[in-house]
Write a structure and sequence with these properties.
disordered N terminus, homotrimer, 9 strands, Rossmann fold, five-stranded parallel beta sheet, four-stranded parallel beta sheet, 11 helices, alpha/beta
Chain lengths: 330, 330, 330
């Protein structure tokens, strides 16, 4: 989908039922968070808030009745796929698609371009996950309908970034909040999408990772250049836990390490438990894009620090907001 | 979902359109048939009858419009999964979920608890099949929404038990009926769920199985203790076929036998064919939870004995009843 | 489903909103194109045209609200499965089913007959793909509801044939059009379904294939006998490209050849590129049932010859027409 060259965003603060905007996001694609204008992000946050209220009321308007979302998952996913599905169904729309390439024409050698053209003609909007970096952008160029990336390789996962931002906004607000991104920052695409949004709102950015899994240098450079913000780096969570308001934890995959003993040594520095949180700043929240394996001890689950399940639940209103905005039904 | 501590059940016998009840089942979980109160079973039978009439009329009220059923199938299933899906769609609701663990975050090492929490936040009611005994009860403790077990290992399959009971009720009534449960009673979870319901209604219970595949002793003991009913045991179907009104046949899996020749010897005693049915009591019906392999000869299909396909079709109204009752929309 | 013995077809040419017909196709099965009466084909074309207009308007009547389509795909498919799904959803209906036999009761040894009986009781209409020739006809005999074949082995793929015909009608009309079917005509089931429709409308039929992959002799003989039409055969596309109006290209699978060097020699004669099209008759269109691998060079994609993507998109209105006609909702 080509993006319209012109967009006027218009806000009303008088309650969640009156959201007027002159279709700033309509028909756009959501591929990364890098080039997303702040007006669009604000519109998404606003609309997400409205959707959250509808969900809590149990009365969601069937804005997308008759519309079809195509879910093209070339790679495993439950969370992203099911939360988009839930979002579409809540709004009265329908869903079709595939999950995994078994039993698809991709197995017969069809090109991604041809597969996208086909699915585009069967639906009104596409969400796609694919292992190759840049595949979402390619799909967006081909498709007539809006394309939302559900993750392309190690590159980006923009809707996760948006629901991360929404979670921070709901739980801590967006003023003077200090955030630590922790774990595998090299391959962790959710952190690549979130960091641009943190910079956009001027939040404090702290990067905590093993030396071999640092945030890609070009991302750090670009953010420093365009936002002029300071980014601090650390090697263990215990160094930041008493200073930050948000501990955003990601999984470190054993497979990333050639040397298993090196992994063993690191593991402890990237694990959240009651001991670590004993030193936490007052009001600190722990977030995680999930699934978690052992990065967060289950002993944290019942504590006020634990916001990772609320975080996951926010995925539905944020994706409802995106679907309705991109389809121009608000 | 925690169950409400108090429930008043109220019945009217004046036709299928007027079913009033003060939400006896609303928000409950259906995990086994062991602790299901008789009022609840009666409510389900009543509501199933109503749903059957709606289906025959071709005019089903869209009671569950806007509601989402999540189907979490960690193990293969077509019948249970598709009949729940059909039931939900017939009532105007929608369905999301997964079938098999390929392509899910379980493969990435996510715990069952975390997966349930996620799916719970995307839906209004869950049906789950999982290979581990007790997994359904665990899911029910975690989820905020009602959980229905679609089978947990060799333990229970309560909705199959309920549709078995409904089939007997529709085809033979529930007074003075003599039932034989035949085949693999050790691992056959459908018989574990059905036997409690037979006892609840005081139906005659006959158990027909190889010695190595007998109904677990603790189940037999518990039923004798709590219901004071008599349970008779046999080793071949020919011993009971002239006495019983219902022959409930299950599959004996070859894999259960270490010694293949032992299996060969037994097979004949657990196969329903015209020869066996030549000695049948007048009006006897043959039921099977399906899929069948060779336990029932296809030569029986066209005869008046064969009720296994009607039996399967009753799965839809019974599941419609459950979904609508648990969601409080009747 | 048994077909009604009597049908009156009634046409009005006064626009797409007034389509009256006395249910010629209602409750029929669509298994092959061989015995499809011309009245039925005309009814389908008419209704497809109407559906196309609804889709372009963006206002499709929800004719199939409350109806359930079952998709039984025993073999991989994305295009056929998703376009049927899209068609059903566009008309306000719902879809359930399976894709691949992993996780189905077929894996437990259930017969096709039993699986069909089950799915039939959960839905209102079935579309099935199965690797065995004749399986669709078997399913149609068993099911109470209409069955549409989505391809049975190398036999037939009738709905593809109908959307091929619709594409030719829309792009070239149905008078005096000369068509070349090219590639693997032995195993290519789409060409087996299309050739009967070409003969029905008296279109010119040219067969272009390697000697080892010729159209089955019995099909050619039957068509010559019943339609008295002429069928010409060729060994390379360059022999026909300047004479025909439609180049219908199918994939030649490497696996069909024992001798890989033989395949290599042939490949060039069955590949559409700009060079071949330099000799094309004015107005020639290239069609392909897709997925394509290398039979059509991507350099053709942007040219006026390329109609294969429009062709694929026509699948939705044609399948909408079929679903609504067979369910008697027009």
């Amino acid at each position: 989908m080509t993006k319209p060259g012109f967009s006027i965003v218009f806000f009303k603060d008088s309650g969640y039922r009156i959201i007027l905007n002159i279709m700033g996001l309509m028909s756009k694609d959501i591929i990364t968070t890098v080039d997303l204008p702040k007006e669009d992000v604000e519109e998404i946050m606003k609309q997400s808030e409205a959707m959250l209220l509808f969900l809590r009321d149990g009365r969601v308007p069937r804005l997308l009745k008759g519309k079809i979302l195509a879910t093209m998952f070339f790679e495993p996913s439950t969370r992203t796929r099911l939360s988009f599905t839930s979002a579409m169904l809540r709004l009265g729309g329908s869903v079709l698609g595939f999950s995994g390439t078994e039993g698809t024409s991709i197995k017969k050698g069809e090109s991604l371009e041809d597969t996208v053209r086909m699915v585009d003609s069967y639906s009104d909007i596409i969400v796609m996950r694919h292992p190759d970096m840049g595949s979402s952008a390619l799909a967006a160029r081909i498709a007539k309908n809006p394309v939302i990336s559900g993750g392309d390789g190690h590159n980006h996962h923009p809707t996760q970034g948006l629901m991360d931002l929404f979670t921070i906004m709901k739980e801590k607000g967006l003023r003077g909040v200090n955030v630590a991104l922790c774990g595998d920052l090299k391959y962790g695409r959710t952190t690549h999408s979130l960091i641009y949004l943190l910079a956009m709102y001027g939040l404090g950015i702290n990067l905590v990772s093993p030396a071999s899994l640092r945030m890609p240098a070009e991302i750090v450079k670009e953010i420093k250049r365009s936002n002029g913000c300071e980014i601090r780096e650390f090697r263990s969570m215990s160094e930041v836990v008493s200073d930050v308001d948000v501990l955003y934890v990601t999984r470190i995959q054993k497979e990333r390490f050639l040397n298993i003993s090196e992994y063993g040594k690191l593991e402890g520095s990237y694990r959240v438990d009651r001991k670590l949180l004993g030193k936490a700043k007052k009001g600190l929240i722990v977030m995680h894009p999930l699934p978690r394996v052992s990065e967060i001890s289950t002993e944290v689950d019942g504590t006020p620090f634990a916001k990772y399940f609320d975080h996951a639940a926010y995925g539905v209103p944020v994706r409802m907001a995106l679907l309705s905005l991109l389809l121009g039904k608000v």
